[in-house]
Amino acid sequence: MGKAITQRRVGICILGAGPAGLGAAWELADKGRGKDVLVVDANTKPGGLARTEVFGGHRFDVGPHRFFTSNKEVHALWHRTLGEAFRPVQRLTRIYYKDKFYLYPVSAFDALPKMGAVQAARALASYAYAFVAKDASKAQTFEEWVTAKFGTRLYESFFKTYTEKVWGIPCNEIGADWAAQRIKGLDLLEVAKNAFGVALGTKPKTLVDEFDYPDLGAGQMYETMAQRAQEKGVELLLNTRVEKAHHENGTLSHVTARGPGGTMDIFADKFITTLPITRMLAMMKPAVGQDVSKACEQLYYRDHITVNLIVDREDLFPDQWIYVHSPDVRMARLANYSNFSDKMASRPGMTPISVEYFVFRTDDLWGKKDDDLVELATSEMEKMGLVSAETVSQGWVVRETDSYPTYYLGYEQPYSIVRAALDEFSNLQPAGRGGLYKYNNMDHSLYSGLLAARNMMQKSNPYDVWKINIDAQYHEGGQRL
Ligand SMILES: Cc1cc2nc3c(=O)[nH]c(=O)nc-3n(C[C@H](O)[C@H](O)[C@H](O)COP(=O)(O)OP(=O)(O)OC[C@H]3O[C@@H](n4cnc5c(N)ncnc54)[C@H](O)[C@@H]3O)c2cc1C
User: Fold this and answer.
1) To the nearest whole number, what is the mean pLDDT of the chain?
2) Hey, whose CA ends up nearest to atom 33 of ligand 1?
3) Assessment of whether the complete model's pTM goes beyond 0.90
4) Per-residue b/e over 144-177, b at no fewer than 16 CB within 10 Å?
5) Domain count of the fold of the chain
6) For site-directed labelling of 231, which of 22, 159, 285, 431 has its Cα 20 to 30 A away?
7) Is there an atom of ligand 1 within 6 Å of 149 CB?
């Protein structure tokens, strides 16, 4: 005989305990509604993509996570949560391309000498040509936008390969909106300002800036938030995967979840979902219509592998992370957590490093054995001159699905169908990165959770979480508050 299905009833059920789900739980708890709230997450710890994993006593995020925001509320909440354990870090980030390291964001005065006289002259000529002859506002694709802004040569050196590694599609199949959102303007004025800064001996503001970071990794923020919400009555069910979402007459009645204690039906008056939107719709019982399921198939996420290494050395390189543009290695980025916080390594003399590969689950890398991935990451770092293989003492692999919602050319059409389908459910609020299919950072994800929770506490839904905006200045040039 199969195990009996347990039944639970709560006021508000939150699906997912990442920044968005926990933001919602926190807001409800803070307003005295904690005892009404149950949060369910498939992971064994809270934090979602922003969690911190501990291996051999050393700490690793799922790829580097810096905290910055221009949203005053999120800024205050982060600081209130961790107080002095949330500290400013001076950022240093570089690009690795063809055996050289270039400052990021790219500075003409750093990059041009490193490129050599001939390449530099070609880059300047193509930049000048683009400046005079091209109009980025007419660009349809990422490639058109970047070449119009920076010229073909700089596009090929500093944008093309990294972007294609991250997204797994050619830059002429990625929408121009994406570039406009993500790439800080580097215009002639900016170049002149940098030159002036260098001449005066002051550091150009764009090259090194500051972000905040918890002592014990990004996940410390969300573990603390989860703990505070629990102290105010919120129940957190970890290691519990939602498998079905049952609905009737435009209302979600309950979800079926599987955890260590077996299967559970969780009935709630209201639900907040931060699960990848296409997965959420695929769980619906009865199933969504054919047009919606077809639109779900057309939207896809990029998956992500982090190879976490412990190196028996310190002071390996000064950056928090390095973007790896070179096409001769498959990694796209690597991070040095000792440069985020000296508490990330369990003892001095060691360095926790993560090496990131952006993949689809159908790619050869996804199916590789962990040991082979550790060997690949180690050999690639050795090739780049950053470590010697015998200093790498251990390695662990984290595979993360549905990490990056993909803004391929034409995604808006299936997206609008999927979004409308979710909006049909009167007692279901979406929030977060995967939940809204938006390339949100932690601050936007968290904020969407706060607003979803506020909607739950009102008769109408006054906040439109789909409208939480993303703009270029905000993403790449966010000022500290
Ligand atoms: C490599 C990488 C680097 C990043 N760097 C930064 C950075 O530097 N700064 C920054 O601000 N942001 C960064 N981000 C973005 C940040 O991680 C996200 O914005 C944030 O984590 C999204 O929060 P969320 O709660 O919306 O979703 P998630 O964090 O994805 O949380 C969703 C939760 O839902 C759970 N879940 C999924 N399916 C189920 C199911 N069926 N049943 C139960 N639970 C389920 C998952 O386990 C997860 O815990 C980065 C992201 C990645 C991938």
Assistant:
1) 90
2) 16
3) yes
4) bbbbbbbbbbbbbbbbbbbbbbbbbeebeebbbb
5) 3
6) 431
7) no
